[in-house]
Amino acid sequence: MATKSAFTVIGEASAARGQLTRREMVRRLVAGMGAGAAWPLAAASHPIHALLRNDALLDEAEKLAVTDWKPLFLNAQQNESLIAIADSIVPGSTKAQVNRFIDLLLSVDTDKHKKNFVDSLAVFEAEAQKRFAKDFPALDEGQKNQLLVDASATSTKENSDGADARESQAGFGKHFENLKGWVSGAYYSSEMGMKELGWTADRVFAGFPGCEHAEGHH
Predict the structure, then answer these.
(1) 200 bridge partner residues
(2) CA 120 to chain centre
(3) Residue 113 Cα distances to 2, 60, 73, 108, 182, angstroms
(4) Confidence band (pLDDT; 50, 70, 90) for 140?
(5) Which of these, 4, 74, 114, 216, could form a disulfide with 79 (CB 3.0-4.6 Å)?
(6) Total number of domains in the chain
(7) DSSP string spanning 186-206?
(8) Average pLDDT, integer, range 94-123
(9) 193 in any annotated domain
């Protein structure tokens, strides 16, 4: 008797309602990646990997759509910065409530990872002020894109300059990679992100197609 693929047919109940819980989506993504594979666009060492395997935490994500939602970890200004940066990195992040999910993940993460995240937001805000005398959310689309393109280019240069450069915690590119890992992990574990990767109500892809967003991301 033929055996069905572990990630081809989803559960009948989920198929009937045409959606998956965050926990179910993450399980299928992990199955599609295979053992030890990296999350789309997030380095294997990124802290989001461990958090996305916490079932209890993923169950809490089902409560994020409430109208009176408030951050558990981020302050109001940090949340606004995250919303703007996330939507610039992966368009659609605001609609997918990426900021809310990241805030939930950070609320149970280590102090070190929390500090690194806040530092990364602060670096982007400082760069926006330095170049345009505005907070990142107040920049126009061209200005936001310019910052992200430069951050991405800086990241590539740092990664090619040797171990000393890669170990620098102050690098603009390193902070960009940190934020990109959080945003991509949160987005591609959402229903919107899953659909972009190929999920439908009755079928889950057997491997990752290209992760390139329709509108492009950095």
Answers:
(1) 203
(2) 14
(3) 45, 20, 12, 10, 11
(4) very high
(5) 74
(6) 1
(7) HHHTSHHHHHHHT-BTTB--S
(8) 97
(9) yes
Query: Distances from the Cα of 158 to the Cαs of 151, 170, 174, 189, 215, in angstroms?
Result: 10, 11, 8, 28, 26
Q: In which band, very low, low, confident or very high, does the pLDDT at 39 lie, cut at 50, 70 and 90? A: low
What is residue 62's DSSP assignment? G
Interatomic CA distance for residues 107 and 214, integer angstroms? 31
Residues 18-24 have a mean pLDDT of 73
In a domain, 175, yes or no: yes
Say how many Å lie between the first and final Cα of the chain, rounded: 45
- Residue 149: phi, psi to the nearest 5? -65, -45
- pTM, 2 dp: 0.77
2 lies in some domain? no
Rg (CA), the chain: 18
Residues 107/87, Cβ–Cβ less than 8 Å: no
DSSP string covering 80-144, please? HHHHHHHHHHSTTTTTTTHHHHHHHHHHTS-HHHHHHHHHHHHHHHHHHHHHHSS-GGGS-HHHH
Place of tokens 């558990």: 72
Query: Are 156 and 145 in contact, with CB atoms under 8 Å apart?
Result: no
Residue 23 CA to residue 97 CA, distance in Å, equals 16
**pLDDT tops 50 at residue 168:** no
In a domain? residue 210: no
